Automatic annotation (TrEMBL):
Single GO MF annotation: DNA binding
CDD domains, per database record: WHTH_GntR
Gene3D superfamilies attached to this UniProt entry: GntR ligand-binding domain-like (1.20.120.530), Winged helix-like DNA-binding domain superfamily/Winged helix DNA-binding domain (1.10.10.10)
Cross-referenced InterPro entries: GntR_C (IPR011711), TF_FadR/GntR_C (IPR008920), Tscrpt_reg_HTH_GntR (IPR000524), WH-like_DNA-bd_sf (IPR036388), WH_DNA-bd_sf (IPR036390)
Domain named HTH gntR-type: residues: 11-78
Native source species: Corynebacterium deserti GIMN1.010
Protein name (Swiss-Prot/TrEMBL): Transcriptional regulator, GntR family
Protein's UniProt keywords contain Transcription: yes
Transport keyword on record: no
Keywords (A to Z) from UniProt: DNA-binding, Transcription, Transcription regulation
PANTHER family: GNTR FAMILY REGULATORY PROTEIN, TRANSCRIPTIONAL REGULATOR, GNTR FAMILY
């Protein structure tokens, strides 16, 4: 019997809806508090409400979507405490990444590469600057060579993006200026883990305070 040729899609419909919504949340298209109506989403995607419901449930389990007692869903709106906790965890992860980079024999080469990836110093569109800032911090974790550390950081990224979009202000761009990251690279280059870790901790603490004040 000849088996007919069909085009297989590696992603299920639920996965496709999930990924599309995730992308829209993390790129700021769907901002914190945006209402997600099953009927509208099902019509927009051309899928059943059940498929949309499954995708929303998956996003809810990841802490990116909230649902009330009546089943209405919306993009999660983080509070000040969540923002502060996220920055503290980032400080711990990136502090460890820095220590591991300093122990590597090619740390000078790594620092040179990181300097080339510094976020821009000029002002620009918020999402563009945010993407470059997070890419720089992700690269620090990647350069450590610690896969578990990198994956832990990446697992926080979606929640971090929601938090930053929730408190997005023009003045918030200053904390992401490339020049603010140079001291930590200097400390890594000099092989001073304590200084580098303290710089990244202070940077994250200042960022947390600035973002938190933007939400109040």
């Amino acid at each position: 019997m000849e088996i007919p040729s069909i085009k297989m899609n590696r992603l299920t419909l639920r996965d496709q809806v999930h990924q599309t919504l995730l992308n829209s949340i993390t790129d700021g298209t769907l901002r914190p508090g945006s209402v997600l109506l099953e009927t509208e989403l099902a019509e927009s995607f051309g899928v059943s409400r059940g498929t949309v419901r499954e995708a929303l449930r998956s996003l809810q389990q990841a802490g990116l979507v909230d649902s009330d007692t009546r089943g209405r869903s919306a993009v999660h709106e983080p509070n000040v405490q969540e923002i502060q906790e996220l920055f503290r965890v980032r400080a711990a992860l990136e502090g460890l990444a820095i220590r591991e980079i300093i122990e590597l024999p090619n740390r000078q080469e790594i620092v040179a590469e990181l300097r080339e990836k510094l976020p821009p110093t000029q002002k620009g569109e918020f999402t563009t600057i945010l993407n470059k800032d997070l890419a720089f911090h992700e690269q620090i974790c990647r350069a450590s060579g610690n896969t578990i550390l990198l994956n832990s950081w990446k697992n926080l990224e979606a929640q971090m993006r929601i938090g930053l979009f929730a408190a997005a202000r023009e003045e918030s761009l200053e904390i992401m200026d490339g020049t603010r990251h140079i001291p930590v690279l200097d400390a890594i280059e000099n092989g001073d883990p304590a200084a580098a870790e303290e710089i990244i901790r202070a940077h994250m603490e200042e960022a947390a305070q600035q973002w938190a004040s933007s939400m109040s």
